[in-house]
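ESCALATION

Customer reports they have been waiting on this structure for their group meeting. Please prioritize. Original submission:
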Amino acid sequence: MLKIMVIGATSAIAHETAKFFAADGADFFLVGRSPEKLSVIKDDLLARGATSAETHEIDMNNFDHHQALLDSAIDRMGQVDVLYIAHGSLGDQALAEADVDVMLQEMNTNFLSTAAFLTLAANYFEERRRGAIAVISSVAGDRGRGSLYVYGTAMAAKTTFLQGLRNRLAKVGVSVLTIKPGRVRTPMTAHLKPSPLLADPEKVGEQIYKAMKSGRDILYTPSYWALIMMIIRNIPERIFKRLSM
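Update from on-call: job pushed to the front of the queue and completed.
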């Protein structure tokens, strides 16, 4: 059975993805900030067929606790076959523009905490010479937009970090999947205006599951975002800077 560590396990997308692995009988180490929510997800995954599940409460911005977290997952499951990172926040762009501390907190939450943990985890997977890493980034990282550039910058940094990690770990048989969702109907996006492009987390979770199983490198989900972002990336800067996006 697969031994899966899920960081940000209480996110809607992570939960939907984990449901598919639960049906395969996976063993889970679920990481998040809310013990109550983690307990609910644990019970749900066990009911869906997971062999076992354990929860661990942590704020990933506490970088000094990362090594102990990784050690706990390995001790609990014996090994980690799959690392799935789905934590993050969609902060307030206006607040981040006005307050340096808010901007830095967004960078810590959405990029540096992931990069810090992956630095430790990558060494573990490299030594084992097998396994899979999957991390949720965002289409927001494909181009800086005035309405979302602090979050987008963190996603762009995450995407580049994962690209380099994939290049490094591919040589020892470890896959690294970069997941780029568009807008998904989750609590994190509940405050945004309704959009016809808003996707259901169930469908996104299924696509991520299939991409993880097949060893893909990059996943735009839903798939139409690959075309949308190709168009956006290729708008000339002299035109793009006049747009409200």
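Sent to customer with the following note: The domain at 3-240 is CATH 3.40.50.720 (Rossmann fold).
Escalation resolved.
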